[in-house]
Amino acid sequence: MRQTRSYPGGPNLAITSGPRQSITLNSVVGQKPPAGEDPKRDQYKSKADIVAFVKKSFADGATAIQAKGEKGMTTEVVYFPQQKSRLLDIAYGIIEHSGEHYGQLVVYYRLAGLVPPESRPKK
Predict the structure, then answer these.
(1) Are 73 and 88 in contact (CB under 8 A)?
(2) Mean pLDDT by 10 residues, the chain (123 residues)
(3) What is the 3-state secondary structure (H, E, C) of the chain?
(4) Is the pTM of this model over 0.70?
(5) In terms of C-beta density within 10 A (0-12 exposed, 13-18 middle, 19 or more buried), how is residue 87 classed?
(6) Which residues face 86 on adjacent strands?
(7) Closest C-alpha among 45, 28, 32 to residue 94
C-alpha cells in the first residue's frame, strides 16, 4: 500500500505570482529584448490584452528560431556563467519548462474549483 505524506508549503492561491513567470530567448540568440519584454502588470487591463502579449512572445520566439535556421540552432552559446549549451538544447529546455508552468496553472485552476481548458469536454 502506498503511503501518503504531508508536505508543507503547498499551493496557495493568495500568493501565486504566475503572471510574472516568464523566460526569454532574445539574449541567447544575440538579440536585444523588445522594449515591452517585461511590461508592468497594469499595462494589461483585460484577459485579451494578456493573451495577445503571450501569443506575440511565442511568435517572436518562433521567428528568432527560424532566423537562426537548423545549422544556427546547433551553435554553442554561454547560457549561464561557465555553462555552454547549444541553442537547440536551450530552446528544448524552455519548451519543457513551459510544461512545468502549465502544470502549476492546472493546480491553481483546480484549487479555485475550475476545470482546466484541456480537461473540459470537447464540443
Answers:
(1) yes
(2) 55 50 49 63 82 84 88 88 88 87 88 89 86
(3) CCCCCCCCCCCCCCCCCHHHCCCCCCCCCCCCCCCCCCCCHHHCCCHHHHHHHHHHHHHHHHHHHHHHHHHHCCCEEEEECCEEEEHHHHHHHHHHHHHHHHHHHHHHHHHCCCCCHHHCCCC
(4) no
(5) buried
(6) 76
(7) 28
